[in-house]
Amino acid sequence: MNDQRDENQKKIDERDFKISALKEELDSLKEFMNMRTEFEEKLISLEAALAQEKKDRIREVSDMERDKIQATEKLRKDMLYKIKETKASLLALNDE
Question: What is the pLDDT of residues 62-76, one digit of tens each?
Fold first, then answer.
């Protein structure tokens, strides 16, 4: 009878050990799932920030290109005005 009791106790101990190991694994998996969720949220946030940064950079480059074109156009107009002014003054000197 003691042998039967010892055998039953051994089975109970083995099952308790398995239950304990499974609970630890479950806790580990829960922690992993929480960390995974946090990392996924952070990744989504970083991807959104990167997309916004990309849009901002594209807009900045576009603005700089537009400013360059405007400055070039202004310079061209100024040069044409100066050329016309110089031409007029040379023509005026020839007429004298």
Answer: 999 999 999 999 999
The CA distance from 41 to 35, in Å, is 10
Separation of CA 82 from chain center: 49
Q: What is the pTM of this model?
A: 0.58
Cα gap 76→16, rounded to integer Å: 89
Could you read off the pLDDT of 23-37 as tens digits, one per residue? 999 999 999 999 999
Q: Is the dihedral of CA 65, 71, 75, 76 positive or negative?
A: positive
Whole-number Cα distances in Å, 31 to 19, 27, 65, 67: 18, 6, 50, 53
